Automatic annotation (TrEMBL):
Name of the protein in its database record: Putrescine aminotransferase
Family: Belongs to the class-III pyridoxal-phosphate-dependent aminotransferase family.
Record carries keyword Hydrolase: no
The organism of origin for this protein: Donghicola tyrosinivorans
TM region(s), chain numbering: none
Amino acid sequence: QISNHMATAELQALDADHHMHPFSTQAGFKTKGARVITRASGTRLWDSEGNEILDAMAGLWCVNIGYGRDELAEVAYRQMKELPYYNTFFQTTHVPVIALSARLAELAPGDLNHVFYAGSGSEANDTNIRMVRFYWAQKGKPDKNIIISRKNGYHGSTLGAMSLGGMSGMHAQGGVVQNVHHIDQPNWWAEGGDMTPEEFGLERAQQLEKAILELGEDRVAAFIAEPIQGAGGVIVPPETYWPEIKRICDKYEILLIADEVICGFGRTGQWFGSQTVGIQPHIMTIAKGLSSGYAPIGGSIVCDEVAEVVGSGEFNHGYTYAGHPVSAAVALENLRILDEEKIIETAREQIAPYLKQQFEALVDHPMVGEAKIVGHMGSIALTPNKETRAKFAAEAGTVGYICRERCFANNLIMRHVGDRMIISPPLVFTRDDVDLLISRARKSLDEAYAKVKAEG
Ligand code: PLP
């Protein structure tokens, strides 16, 4: 029987033979096996060789309350025994979904009072594409169906969500849906040139207005963006950016969709990233931190007016696992823990200032050009020349990959996006965790720097 007790090499060989990894070159697993993660607790993972690893990514930006909370396991067990599955199609509902929806309506800002569930963030964004088009069609404007989003934005991997996203490598593999338009991201460090961050933030936001005028006000249905772009490199926008985006959406009656899949549930220091950047969206996409990753669940939280218009007709859309009772019960328990244990406030007030001070000090490393963090999501930009903000001679991402490998070897999970290194730790990170993160990150940066210098 295949179990944790098998030799690592045997598990790796079976994995390479039969399991296709996401976002990976499969052939690599034959020569270098995947690390087998066997258990987790708090902010730490253990692999099959017994190594203890500090997880500064909270899995895939999702394990906000940390690993190993028995309460969630117990709630899932009880819910599986009582009602393991039912759906909310065709005039049925169930208590976990009722309770979770009411709680989300309380937590979400303004009149975001209605939840349409999905199994993941990608599915929720597919819902959003269909929902905003249906909304405008219901209002007699079926041609108002173009959605504007941003280059390097990430909104998921399904055809619809991938199309909303602005990842050129994903688009190049085909299948992009029609009527999605991308504007540039507000990445001041890489693209700001001689402009101040404030000027640059305005310039990038005004690209939205230009796009609306070019495409036609009566054609643009919505603008979607992450409050702070995550998988695109944790790009913290200049302060002028979001107020200008908001002004433009209001002026042209464009629905604003905040993709809160990463930013939601405390990652930026508030319940939602929209609150941190000061916007009131019409729709928010949620997933990940909603259940701290313990069970798959996502959704769209929708404002009163949009819900009313969409609800006035039959919106032919829904997923078998939408609002799954076990996932909903787990999510509700996760929200209870976040709230009652004051995890978001504690993270914001007691840990985030120290994390910021330590993390942003990495900018003194010879290979780091920028280090920025908001709440518990941050990134550093790697460069061979801080003054000119130059790119490395090697293909983009090569040095980032080397750094990630060094972190991995030093039992630290950080991620690289091109030549940026990212963190998104669990919100239960302690000061000791911060110290360990920084010492392992510095060691890994030093090793990568030595390798890059040696290889020219
Ligand atoms: N939206 C954002 C901002 C994300 O970061 C992600 C995943 O990383 C998604 C959507 C897709 O979510 P999922 O992987 O649950 O489909």
